Amino acid sequence: MEKILYWIGTNFTHYCIAKSLKEKIPNESYAIFDITSKPEKFFEKENIVNFQKKWFFHNHILNTKQMPDLEYLSKFEKKYDIQLSKIVFSERLFSEFNEFYKFQTNEILRILELECKFFERVLDEINPNFVLMFTPYLHQELLFFKLCKSKGIKTLELGNTRFDSAVIGFDDEIKKYDSFKVEGNVRNFQELRNYFSENYMLKSSNKIVKRTELSLNDKISMAMEYFIFTNDENIKNNFGYYGRNKVKVFLNYINNIVRMKKRKKFIDENFQNEIRDEKYILFPLQTEAESSLLIESPLQNDQIEVIKKISKAMPIDYKLIVKEHPMAKSRSWRSIESYKEMMEIPRVILLHPEIKVQEIMEKISLVITISSNVALDALFSEKPAMMFAENYISVIPSIYKVKNISDLSENIEKMLKENVNPIDLEKYIQFSEEISFRFNPLAFSQDISDFFHFSGQLVDVEITEEKMNEFFKKENDKIELLANQYIKKMSLEN
């Protein structure tokens, strides 16, 4: 009988999948829950899935003030060929983006030690045939994912393609990209753009973002849930909550409102709203502390430093458009000091976040990005792109991968003369369709957030069996689809 180990975070998608798979195929089910204290009470006692065994991640990451065992971490790193520093020091909680707590280096390394020992212990104990999880977002997820892969465990992560569809096991699938052959005719650019316009994931992502905006009544209900009914268990036992208390959270919320207004005023008064007819290269800013920066490009994620390097490396008759990400609003925008530092860089133009990307594409010659999806926008607009990170779109040959920063000037000169090959886009579309199925994991995650978590604004909430069963009934068709796709994938892997 197959042993399946699930990683279940605050997004309960894989709990839903576990229930359905238990009903469909014989298997031994195990789970690691990375959740807060209130939902833990439900999952500790639940018998809907009836797991053979379950672990609650944060219950094993305690005594974090002790000195770390560096000898163990060094041996672990060599044994599994996992670069631990790149993983743990790319965690947003351990960086300057954490507004509530400053972790000391030894504290971070102690947490890492406890995580490594816990994951080793669990995997050695049950030796699962399959691990089912989401594409890693937090450092502990990435560490667990890499350890499973290093131990040869079939790890099937659920993620989304760039075309509003889902893929299971993308890390393995992408290795087949080079050998994939295009079938049939190659569409022209207009036909490719039509496909992109109809299927691009950001089209649905924008709708999902709007769903996170709470009504006044929901905000009041959420505030009552947090300030009246929430205890301090997470502050003591969950390192993601270190440094928080109700007073600090309230003051931070008020401070953010004030900061956002000041920063938005600065943006409106100082950023350009139109693009003159000159020669331009585009650098799209990415929201700070997002996984595509911290995980995909851990060694090259200081965006201001990258802008300075591009400014020095580009031809003398070009200007660099720096476009703020519209979702930077969700992080209270950047500091005014950061914007001023960018404005002082020679030949840099800060463009208002409300200007549409397509409008910019008509004016520019090249896109340079760390890991942004704007590189894909560029290709469909027949503009070449350069990227620092290795990710799901960097496999496209028309995106030049920057490997050596000292060669940036030569690379820019070369790419300004390049034309985008439509066969590159045709191949990427056909490959994406081949490995994926029509489903939006982000939208389903938002369904969960809407139902349980005040649209994602508060995850530490009480859950009842009645409410969970109500959700299963409401979303049965989507859960069945996911479970069937996982069964199909596991059958292919055996």
Please explain how this structure is put together.
The chain is α/β, with parallel strands linked by helices and 494 residues long. It folds into two domains: 2-184 and 438-493, Rossmann fold; 272-420, 3-Layer(aba) Sandwich (Rossmann fold), CATH 3.40.50.2000. It is 48% helix and 12% strand. The chain has 22 helices and 13 strands. It has helices at 13-24, 37-45, 70-80, 84-88, 105-126, 139-150, 170-173, 189-199, 201-211, 216-229, 233-237, 246-270, 291-294, 303-313, 336-343, 357-361, 374-380, 408-415, 422-435, 441-452, 465-474, 476-493; strands at 2-8, 27-33, 53-56, 130-134, 154-160, 166-168, 280-284, 319-323, 348-351, 366-369, 385-387, 399-401, 436-437. The strands form two sheets. It has a seven-stranded mixed β-sheet with strand order 3-2-1-4-5-6-13. It has a six-stranded parallel β-sheet with strand order 9-8-7-10-11-12, sandwiched between helices. Helix 6 links the parallel strand 4 (130-134) and strand 5. Helix 5 packs across helix 6, helix 9 (201-211) runs parallel beside helix 20 (441-452) and helix 14 packs across helix 18 (408-415). The longest helix has 25 residues, at 246-270. The chain is globular. The two termini are 12 Å apart. The model has no long low-confidence stretch (mean pLDDT 91).
